[in-house]
Specification:
Elements lengths: L14 E4 L5 E4 L4 H12 L7 E4 L5 E5 L2 E5 L11 E5 L7 E4 L5 E2 L1 H9 L3 E6 L2 E4 L9 H9 L2 H19 L6 H9 L2 H4 L3 H18 L2 E2 L1 E2 L5 H4 E2 L17 H23 L18 H7 L3 H14 L1 E2 L4 E3 L5 E3 L1 H11 L3 H17 L1
Parallel strand pairs: 3-7, 4-8, 7-9, 12-14
Antiparallel strand pairs: 1-2, 4-5, 5-6, 9-10, 11-13, 15-16
Helix pairs in contact: 1-12, 4-5, 4-11, 9-10, 9-11, 9-12, 9-13
């Protein structure tokens, strides 16, 4: 096929085609030089952090001479990734996040991380698994309070905390007056069911996200349907906020997932049952308490990331799109996002402690 006949499509989604042997394949049309440039751009923006994220091909975590040895996975920007050593007791590591389809962690490394009280998180497909969450001194009264506490009272406390966080992070919200009245008035106290509280939360969220609409600064060839961020929802069926089809939502979803893992570990360290929530409905396969407490820090995450996203000039190759249209992040961009939200660890710890004190006072 001549160069004149082939025109690179603007659509970044992979294309399915039939091979000569009759089988089907999926091909990405994004130029390798552009993909490598994006990956290299984000690699250069990584900073020293208390959280290290392993991405790429075949990362590893092991121990050698009593030091933790972390080898990054190969990416388009770094096919010969560096190896970093962390001596026991003189490091600043708080978390190791693994976001890679392969690689390994040795048993020695697991013992080393646990002895140093370093969290280990596995990210995959929008979910997190927190592997190291040893409880030294579980507080039985906390779980008793969780199981016997008034769900409406607890959900009301969560919603008030969310309102306060929104007003603190974004005092110029168009519905700020309404939020102040809900926070300090008697309206929430008069609601007698969790469903009523969820309806109030849904109305608040709708107005909140209408305020956060903006145009992304970007280079040429950027898909036009990505230029405007105007809704916090997926374009795929009735999936809500899951399966992001816009870069902003993809970044937010990834950040929320990582912070949820941090929340889960802090809850587990205190012996809380992460399945027992209030504002989020019970689900046998969901950490409802984690998503409840995440509501108290979402506004901080949003302020941090939305401000940053407005300051970046984006490339189409900063993101990959599945055949279905689901957007994901470049491997090194994911590492940058984790570094940014890792600054909220102290806020997470404070929120979990506030929740435990509230339970014990019930």
């Amino acid at each position: 096929m001549s160069k004149r006949q082939f025109k690179e499509p603007l659509d970044c989604r992979p294309k399915r085609f039939t091979r000569e042997d009759g089988g089907e394949s999926v091909q990405h049309f994004l130029p390798m030089r552009e993909l490598r440039a994006s990956s290299n751009y984000w690699l250069k923006r990584l900073r020293t952090s208390t959280v290290i994220t392993l991405t790429g091909i075949s990362p590893s975590v092991s121990v050698d001479n009593d030091s933790l040895v972390i080898k990054q996975g190969a990416t388009l920007a770094d096919m010969a990734p560096p190896t970093t050593r962390y001596p026991r007791g003189v490091h600043r590591l708080a978390w190791v996040v693994i976001d890679s389809p392969n690689g390994f962690v040795t048993i020695d490394a697991l013992h080393w991380l646990e002895s140093q009280r370093i969290g280990l998180m596995m990210c995959s497909g929008g979910n997190t698994s927190v592997l190291l969450q040893h409880v030294d001194k579980p507080i039985v009264s906390l779980r008793r309070a969780q199981y016997s506490g008034n769900v409406v009272v607890i959900a009301r406390w969560v919603l008030r905390g969310k309102l306060a966080a929104c007003l603190d992070a974004f005092p110029d919200l168009p519905n700020a007056q309404e939020l102040h009245e809900l926070l300090h008035g008697d309206t929430l106290s008069q609601l007698v069911s969790v469903n009523d509280l969820r309806l109030v939360e849904g109305r608040i969220a709708g107005a909140y996200w209408k305020h956060h609409t903006f145009t992304l600064n970007h280079y040429a060839k950027f898909p036009p349907w990505w230029s405007e961020f105007d809704r916090r929802s997926s374009g795929i069926g009735n999936t809500g906020n899951r399966h992001a089809t816009h870069p902003v939502n993809a970044i937010l979803n990834y950040a929320y997932t990582v912070v949820a893992g941090i929340v889960k570990r802090h809850c587990a360290l205190l012996g809380l049952d992460t399945a027992v929530g209030s504002l989020h409905a019970d689900n046998d396969r969901r950490d409802s308490l984690v998503w409840d407490l995440l509501e108290l820090i979402r506004a901080d995450i949003d302020k941090l990331l939305l401000t940053w996203m407005k300051s970046v000039k984006w490339r189409r190759t900063d993101f990959l799109t599945s055949e279905r249209g689901v957007v994901s992040l470049d491997t090194n961009l994911r590492r940058v996002v984790v570094e940014k939200v890792s600054t909220l660890q102290s806020s997470v710890e404070r929120i979990v402690k506030d929740y435990t004190l509230f339970l014990l006072r019930l």
